[in-house]
Amino acid sequence: MRKKEDLFLGLIKLTRIVYHTWHDKFFQARLFTEGSENVSALKNFIKTKYGDVKSTELYSPKTCYRQCITGEKTRMCVICHSHQKEDVVDECTLIIRSTKLAKIILKSHRQESQKPKY
Question: Which of 28, 35, 53, 113 is the 20 to 30 Å CA partner of 14?
């Protein structure tokens, strides 16, 4: 997180922003938010800006889900969790990732895993 960073995405209050790099290149940012109003606003922001999400993946019965949009240059995923009860989401993470760099990293990891270990 950068010092004195604006922790808002539009009107959405963020709790923190984490930046990731790989070999000194920007790879992804993770934007975290909490509270039902901010979570709803984040989902509406994505829908308004990028359209309907084509796929929703449910994890552990109704307590966590992920919605992703994958474009030519960018993949965005909204991952939401509920810690209290089903269907009440209380925190979300928006992950914005370079699709091109993700492919390069995956290829690099595969090559590393295939190297003989001594």
Answer: 53
